[in-house]
Amino acid sequence: MKYITFAIPCYNSQDYMERAIESVLKGGKDIEVIIVNDGSKDGTEEIARRYEREYPDIVRVVSQENGGHGEAVNSGLLHAQGKYFKVVDSDDWLDEEALLKIMETLRRFEENGEEVDMLISNYVYEKVGASHKKVIHYRNCLPQDQVFGWNDLGHFRIDQYILMHSVIYRTELLKLCQLHLPKHTFYVDNIYVYYPLPHVRTIYYLDVNLYRYYIGRDDQSVNEKNMIKRIDQQLYVNQSMIDMYQMKMISNKKLRSYMIKYLAIMMTVSSIICIRSKKEENLKKKKELWIYLKRKDYKTYFKIRYGILGQTMNLPGRSGRKISSMGYSVMRRIIGFN
Fold first, then answer.
1. 165 Cβ contact partners less than 8 Å away, ≥ 6 residues apart
2. Residue 331 pLDDT
3. Other C-beta atoms within 10 Å of 128: how many?
4. Cβ of 48: how many Cβ atoms within 10 Å?
5. Residue 130's closest CA among 251, 22, 216?
6. CA 20 to 30 Å from 236, out of 67, 111, 180, 198?
7. pLDDT given for residue 72 in this prediction
8. Which pLDDT does position 37 carry in this prediction?
9. pTM
């Protein structure tokens, strides 16, 4: 049995994908690696096939027409045979020591007849040109060395939310909840993390810095200029998350509170990108997004709109938008995101 499947979506990734693959292979023969070639035009396919030949018991290659990051994740999940599932983007990589501790933990679960729905670990911003590497950990808000549930959550700081980089899901859970990401859409990693949450019952946190999140390339989707160009995709993902759940239907209060705060961050990101674009049409789209939330779930809208983030993103007039933008710049420096 493979303890974990690592899916590596690749699109024109020949210049950096080997680092991601080599780092994952440190997990040994108890892992499965699915390299998804998402319609690349460069040497991605050739590199992927070489690893498949060299590691026939570990590596499999799935080639498909270009469908975007979400469709590549869908393909990885469809073909996954490991008990757990993790996405590693082709320009990121894993820390070897942390990976071995993750594998040790999964083996222990199996030996003891245990399983969890979600395993969480830390991630590191590997930002170009930054001498200090920001580590996102959860040791102040999640119990350690024990299986726990939503009632055991502590207080999350604004930079501590669970992202794709920090989460490992049980494969069968993702398949049973019918997770399916939209094609040709950026920023779907938020859907990947958010949608399965109400289906999760058991969680385990391992305080190791597993995922190295590389940011700073000009062509990355999280580059601000690219986010402005793709604002419609960001708004689409945001609206999709609004549509997923009426928050009053989430029975666990701590989970409901966490999901509302996550949605508040998404509303903040969408709003600030609209503001920083300085285009009237995007300011109109920002307003429409808030109206959309209000119509779909008024109680959630009220909590988000009149919370700190909501008020900061909706200060009136040009001067208000300037203050919102300055606040975002300060937070970007503090947290370290792109």
1. 92, 123, 136, 211, 213
2. 65
3. 11
4. 28
5. 216
6. 198
7. 98
8. 98
9. 0.93
Instruction: Report residue 93's pLDDT band, with 50, 70 and 90 as the boundaries.
Output: very high
- Residue 9 pLDDT more than 80? yes
Dihedral over Cα of 176, 81, 138, 213: its sign: negative
Q: Lowest mean pLDDT: which of 23-32, 149-158, 213-222, 275-284? A: 213-222
HEC assignment per residue over the chain = CCCEEEEEEECCCCCCHHHHHHHHHCCHHHEEEEEEEECCCCCHHHHHHHHHHHCCCCEEEEEECCCHHHHHHHHHHHHCCCCEEEECCCCCEECHHHHHHHHHHHHHHHHCCCCCCEEEEEEEEEECCCCCCCEECCCCCCCCCCEECHHHCCCCCCCCCCCHHHEEEEHHHHHHCCCCCCCCCCCCHHHHHHCCHHHCCCEEEEEEEEEEEEECCCCCCCCHHHHHHCHHHHHHHHHHHHHHCCHHHCCCHHHHHHHHHHHHHHHHHHHHHHHHHCCHHHHHHHHHHHHHHHHHCHHHHHHHHCCHHHHHHCCCHHHHHHHHHHHHHHHHHHHCCC
CB 68 within 8 A of CB 173: no
Residue 231 in contact with residue 187, Cβ under 8 Å?
A: no
What region does 336 belong to: left with phi over 0, alpha with psi -120 to 50, or beta?
A: left
Q: Is the confidence at residue 329, as pLDDT, over 70?
A: yes
Q: For residues 93 and 23, is the Cβ–Cβ distance under 8 A? A: yes
Q: How far apart are CA 37 and CA 75, in angstroms?
A: 10
pLDDT digits (tens, 9 = 90+) for 130-182: 677 889 999 999 999 899 999 999 999 888 889 999 999 999 999 999 999 99
Q: How far apart are CA 198 and CA 150, in angstroms?
A: 10
16-30: per-residue pLDDT in tens? 999 999 999 999 999
Tell me: pLDDT of 64 over 80: yes
**Which amino acid does the sequence have at 286?**
K
Quick check: 332 pLDDT over 70? no
- Distance in angstroms (rounded) separating the CA atoms of residues 300 and 263: 9
For 233, phi and psi rounded to 5 degrees? Answer: -75, -40
